[in-house]
């Protein structure tokens, strides 16, 4: 029985990532194929599996081509201005756009570096990402200079909370943002290598200027 349990657990560990990967790919395929599947069915008269995916990819590429030229940028700006004038739509569209912009490649500097903060109480540490210095009213009404730290949830780093931490209480880590995301998504299972040659802590005099730590 011990051998059977050992074999079962080993097989489970091997097959589970593969099964989840296949499931995710099939779900994405069905979702993309279904976006234009109704249009294809109406034009052709019967469904053509896979054609919806190709058309969806083509539509995304076309939107990208339009968005990267001068005329397209003006059209998008006009569309966003129009959407932001509609009461309910502007709240939904604005929130979704901000989230996507924060995690897109075009704003890869949104997360400047990885840091440790004592959260939710002293003695317990949370991994977070530095997003900038505290500014405006927040900084004016705090006794110390603070840093904006985004503390994501596991295993979904797109949700989380913003905490404003005094600079002297922030422990900066040497790992890259990519490694920090891997650490969070894996729930701590994937631990980035660390050679121990440089210190993880940064003195309070170190500040962030123009989006980069100095």
Which key terms come to mind for this protein?
7 helices, alpha+beta, 214 residues, five-stranded antiparallel beta sheet, 49% helix, two-stranded antiparallel sheet
β-strand percent reads: 15-25%
Query: Helical proportion?
Result: 40-55%
Report the end-to-end length measured between terminal Cα atoms.
Answer: 59 Å
Number of domains: 2
Mean pLDDT equals: 80
Unreliable residue stretches: 197-214
Radius of gyration over alpha carbons? 23 Å
How many helices? The count is 7
Categorize the overall geometry.
Answer: flat
Number of strands: 7
The H/E string reads HHHHHEEHEEEHEE
Question: Structural class of the secondary structure composition?
Answer: alpha+beta
Oligomer: single chain
Mind summarizing the main beta sheet?
5 strands, antiparallel
With strands numbered from the N-terminus, the spatial order across the biggest sheet is: 4-3-2-1-5
Write a concise synopsis of the structure shown.
The protein is built from 7 helices and 7 strands; from the N terminus they run αααααββαβββαββ. By secondary structure, the protein is α+β, with helices and mostly antiparallel strands. The protein has 2 domains: 24-105, no CATH class; 111-205.
Please explain how this structure is put together.
This protein folds into two domains: 24-105, no CATH class; 111-205. Helices cover 49% and strands 16% of the residues. It is of the alpha+beta class. It has helices at residues 2-35, 37-44, 51-67, 70-83, 87-103, 136-140, 177-185; strands spanning 113-118, 125-133, 146-152, 160-166, 171-172, 208-209, 212-213. The strands form two sheets. Strands 4-3-2-1-5 form a five-stranded antiparallel β-sheet, covered by helices on one side. It has a two-stranded antiparallel sheet with strand order 6-7. The chain starts with a helix and ends with a strand. α1 packs across α3 (51-67). The longest helix is centred in the first third of the chain and has 34 residues, at 2-35. It is built from seven helices and seven strands. β6 (208-209) and β7 form a beta hairpin.
